[in-house]
Amino acid sequence: MNRNFTAVFLIATLIALSACGRTREKREKTGEEHAPSSSGNREAVDMRPVLVAFGDSLTAGAGVDPEDAYPAKLQERIDRAGYSYHVVNAGVSGETSSQGLNRLPAIVGLRPSIVIVEFGANDGLRGVPVEAIRHNLDAIVAGLQTQGIKVILAGMELPPNYGRKYTETFREIFRTVAEERGVPLIPFLLEGVGGHARLNQDDGIHPTAEGHDIVAENVWKILRPLLSLN
Fold first, then answer.
1. Ranges of each domain in the chain
2. Is 57 tagged catalytic?
3. What would the pLDDT profile of 137-148 be if each residue is shown by its tens digit?
4. What architecture does CATH give domain 7-226?
5. 135 belongs to the catalytic site
6. 68, 135, 203, 213: which is the annotated catalytic residue?
């Protein structure tokens, strides 16, 4: 795996994700939080199998238009390849793995065929014990699997200033959960985007529309073998 992204980028990423969390808390208090939205303009009734992108601001597409976030880009790839799936963006900025676990019933309620799970960066920022993160991710994956839902797990990484032991153990969480639950793993969601200024917004961490193209491609490589022609 290419590790040429910088520690500065990762530190900035975690700071920005934390800021997104504070913004989310403000929205919740003022009643502005929104339900998951579908990618692009869809009819109210869509009979296609549902594919849910489930995560935090990296999934939600903070700072870009909805059609430029990776879930919408993923919908474009699915359509071009001739598959019939309806991608739903269920990303909420600032969420931790614990908050994602709390939202699991709502995700299951969408009756998805496939769910892409992306959590962990906000946990790392807050120094959540790795065992707690692993437990939450495992519970999310297991909860989806018990409903017969296919799962893809997206890996994340932390900057070295969090200590070698913590960062290495954090990185291994995703591989361990994926292997134990038998689900495909995206080693690092931001591969090819992290550390590249032109692919990130002014905050230096959230992908631009072009950056989301690369993120979507990272996901697509792992997702495509799971798709079926309907």
1. 7-226
2. yes
3. 999 999 999 999
4. 3-Layer(aba) Sandwich (3.40)
5. no
6. 203
